[in-house]
Design brief:
Elements lengths: L1 H14 L4 H28 L7 H29 L7 H26 L16 H27 L5 H24 L6 H24 L7 H7 L3 E2 L2 E2 L7
Antiparallel strand pairs: 1-2
Helix pairs in contact: 1-2, 1-4, 2-3, 3-4, 5-6
């Protein structure tokens, strides 16, 4: 959770630098940080109280309420800073100003988490069953190999002058397709995974595919859907202008 937040904050600070290279670095850091942070948020909320405790449902409600408040306010602030008329001469500089606001907000969130995490129950021993060290090493090895291979490929394409945004996205897409396959293969081949447990793991493949399709549609709101919003939606209310980015 903590390291994920740090990576996301560093990613926003990197994107605040008005260069194309730092923007790509920032996107990579944010992606890696989100992978560490997002799955653990719900897990930590679930560990605060026992299953039969009535406060457990309230903890989830408060957690998601805080997330939704940030998701609502974030695009309004960063979108306004990034595309507000009269603040800057160019679109490029404005959006990096918006990324700076996101970095500052993430920094305050990290400070609040560090100061208050001593109140989180079970933060040292959250796992009900301690993972096998050898299995952990086998699981981490392909992840590290994939990250190093991706970075090496990006550097090679950059040095040869062949790195374009389209090719970079294609490279990331290839990694995102291969990584889950490797992950499930390592998980199913674990020495502690009995045939009975392996049968219970198979439904997770179906859930994973369904979740992938759901997120594929959901996250169009932050990319593809902004395009019609920028051309077909009303962006002025009583003389006050707000950019299409606020619709995210």
């Amino acid at each position: 959770m903590l390291w994920g937040g740090i990576l996301i904050a560093c990613g926003h600070y990197a994107m605040a630098v008005p260069t194309t290279g730092m923007t790509w670095v920032g996107l990579g850091l944010i992606s890696a940080g989100t992978g560490l942070l997002k799955p653990n948020v719900a897990t930590m909320a679930g560990k605060l109280y026992r299953t039969a405790d009535e406060r457990r449902d309230a903890s989830f409600a408060l957690s998601y309420m805080a997330i939704n408040i940030g998701a609502f306010a974030g695009p309004l602030i960063t979108g306004w800073l990034g595309d507000h008329r009269g603040w800057h001469r160019g679109w490029h500089r404005g959006w990096h100003r918006g990324f700076s606001a996101a970095a500052i907000g993430m920094t305050f969130g990290l400070l609040q988490y560090v100061l208050g995490r001593r109140h989180l129950a079970g933060r040292k021993h959250a796992a009900e069953f301690a993972p096998d060290p050898d299995a952990m090493r086998r699981a981490i090895r392909p992840i590290v190999t994939g990250l190093v291979s991706t970075a090496a490929s990006a550097v090679l394409l950059a040095t040869t002058g062949r790195l374009t945004m389209d090719r970079f996205v294609d490279l990331l897409t290839l990694v995102q397709v291969i990584a889950p396959v490797v992950y499930f293969a390592v998980m199913f081949a674990g020495p502690r995974v009995t045939p009975e447990k392996r049968g219970r793991l198979r439904p997770y493949i179906v859930l994973f595919l369904a979740w992938t399709v759901f997120n594929f549609i959901l996250f169009q709101a932050y990319s593809t859907m902004i395009l019609p919003a920028s051309t077909n939606a009303e962006t002025t209310i009583r003389g006050f202008y707000f950019p299409a980015g606020c619709y995210a």
